[in-house]
Amino acid sequence: MIILSISLIIAGSCNKWLDIxxxxxxxxxxxxxxxxxFRDAVIGVYVKMAxxxxxxHEMTWRTVEFLSQQYAVxxxxxxxxxxxxxxxxxxxxxxxxxxxxxxxxxxxxxxQILIYQEKNREVFAQTPITDSLIKGExxxxxxxxHLDIMRLFGKGNLGNRxxxxxxxxxxxxxxxxxxxxxxxxxxxxxALLRKDIEEAIEYLxxxxxxxxxxxxxWDAEVAGGFISTTSVGTSMPNRKMRMNYWAAKALYxxxxxxxxxxxxxxxxxxxxxxxxxxxxxxxxxxGDGAYYTWVTSSDINGSYWxxxxxxxxxxxxxxxxxxxxxxxxxxxxxxxxxxxxxxYSQYSVAYLTDARRKTIFENGTSLIDADWRATxxxxxxxxxxxxxxxxxxxxxxxxxxxYSKRMPLIRISEMYYIAAECFLEQGASYNKALAxxxxxxxxNQRNIPISYNLSSTMSETDIRNEITKEYLKEFIGEGxxxxxxxxxxxxxxxxxxxxxxxxxxxxxxxxxxxxxGGVREN
Length: 522
Prior knowledge:
Elements: H1 4-7, H2 22-31, H3 35-49, H4 63-67, H5 92-119, H6 128-153, H7 186-203, H8 219-222, H9 237-240, H10 245-259, H11 262-276, H12 297-300, E1 316-321, H13 325-328, E2 351-353, H14 354-360, H15 367-370, H16 372-375, E3 378-380, E4 387-390, E5 406-411, H17 412-422, H18 432-445, H19 460-474, H20 480-488, H21 502-505, H22 511-515
Antiparallel strand pairs: 1-5, 2-4, 3-4
């Protein structure tokens, strides 16, 4: 398999010169002369996304999660400056650089695929479904990565800050070129995100997971092609490890929420409800038997922790397969980031203090003893119970389940939280009862008894606080909590004593980009 990184050499980043030589172009022409070459290139994009500088490490359970204050701060630990938001102190300058370069390298690979797909139309003469799937996946992934770079390096709370709409944010790169892509405004960048994802959804309507095409529609392209037999069957596991139709629609909802206007939130509600398998009138939807199923007691209570589905795999809409995840999470040959036994100060470790766990899961109520996210998905250090780490990602030789090698990037629960938030928006969709129903649905699926359901008579403020509690509980180690805080522009967050402003929320663009004139300081 030829991975595009062989043919694509980035001399610095998206805004530095690309080595696009005649030799590179020859290799690319060979790569994209047949469907197999395109298929291998697409796989290469997912492989790059799962690299440590991106979604198997820094963009999920490490740097971005440290920014959310979810983990304990250990004196002398290598990441101690991250939760302090000391972006110019080690190790953050190098992390900023690697995150930026890794993301734009993925985007460059995506753009090369899209360009050659248009250039070599004859390649797909006999495989129109494959053609459409590749186009849809690549457009959606381009939006996915750009959104995350903007969420990290740009400003947040856009819907309540019209004064920044014309400020420059991160470059939105749609060309495969050695010339720099100029920065655009937030307004223009959101428009490009919407354009890419809207087009992607149209192309992905032929996705087997969409259920929008009749049985047998894919038969001609199954054998040895882009679509496997499992993807047109009942389980379709490989389509969930690709940017599929429902993941694209969920991503659209995420983009619209980041835009943050009343109009975009109304649209986000529509998209979220459709992904949930629901309607505006019921606010729920089960999904069971469709393209996701809720985790069950038998799923989560296996004979051993590593045979239990602690990552809620069947609820994941889009996930990455992480090869060598045990190596990525290893600090030494015998020590993992996810082993939290003492002494904590002697190695890198990602864990929650017992005090934080008790706060998040509402110690003093029956919730902490019932909620699987507290009882099963966090792993204590032993009898002292002073620290808790993330069991769903923990890999041990000969004791690791397949689920523990997956990094969830979009999950169905997020759609329920988006719907709950949007039901509180003043207007035609306003419905406190449905907002609460969405939250109760997820809570019940986490083993919280119906007798502890939230009341529809709660105030709006209390409901919004419950949504925040759910983000704290649901996405531990996945990098979503920090972006939730930032999207809302919350001034005060759990376990940070200062006030959150742009200085804390906005990671500065890499020093090398600013020094070279590739981007303006944000």
